[in-house]
Amino acid sequence: MPVLRIDDPSDDRLSDYRDLTDVALRRRTEPAEGLYIAESAKVLARAIAAGHTPRSVLVQEKWLPDAEALAGDAPIYLVSDEVAEQLTGYAVHRGALAAMHRPVLPSVADVVAGARTVLVLEDIVDHTNVGAIMRNCAALGADAVLVTPGCADPLYRRSIRVSMGTVFQVPWARLESWPADIELLKSAGFHTAALALAPDAVDLSRFATTLPDRVAWILGSEGDGLSRRTIAAADTVVKIPMAGGVDSLNVAAASAVALWATSA
């Protein structure tokens, strides 16, 4: 486990950590290179516990002991606070950053096998919301998460951080064809429940009283919500009654309410 002090933020060995604030760049390069960034020793520990492997670890002096305990055979790049900020584009104050090898995603069939409660995230683009939903799933007992082709990456740095590392414990997979894959869920025995506002929507409390054995909750994007095609294809449209003239909740909050109301 070599510890290598690096004083130049342009050093090629640090390329995995450069310009982490450029979301578009990271979206494009992380999946192609098979990497994601884990931020903080706690998140890194959870990733390693889930079987993930670091390619390298970036750390400042005060967090070096934590990094040495976690890095295994991966090189540790020791940098000053100034170099870390120049490199990443922000003040790094959560401890170690690690460039992690992405695990091979399981198939949708493997993820939903044996599951009773599944969440489907349709084109949710805010990484914070994706991370919060993952945390809700871990806390409230959802068995798996499926993300559509247009959904933000659950292994993006902000998603991981907001999830508090629970993204590593909630099984998830990416759907290939949406909303056509609704039929895949139905054929697997799931009752598809779309959280949306619609004239024929059923109140959540009523839906919970006759809860099907297997439910796939479908949640839509932050701006437009679920697509019309998805709503039309779902078995049931479910709404959370609102007061105070508010028409809807944030999607992560809605996921927590739906899971809590229908948990055993």
Structure commentary:
The structure is a single chain. The chain is α/β, with parallel strands linked by helices. The protein folds into 2 domains: 3-101, 60s Ribosomal Protein L30, Chain: A (2-Layer Sandwich); 108-261, SPOUT methyltransferase, trefoil knot domain (Alpha/beta knot, 3-Layer(aba) Sandwich), CATH 3.40.1280. The chain is built from 11 helices and 12 strands. The protein has helices at residues 23-33, 41-49, 64-70, 81-88, 108-112, 127-140, 157-162, 182-187, 204-209, 228-233, 251-261, and strands at 3-5, 35-39, 53-60, 76-79, 97-101, 117-121, 144-147, 172-174, 191-195, 202-203, 215-219, 236-239. The strands form 2 sheets. It has a 7-stranded parallel sheet with strand order 8-7-6-11-9-12-10. It has a 5-stranded mixed sheet with strand order 1-4-3-5-2. Helix 6 (127-140) packs parallel to helix 11. The longest helix is centred in the middle third of the chain and has 14 residues, at 127-140. The model has no long low-confidence stretch (mean pLDDT 91).
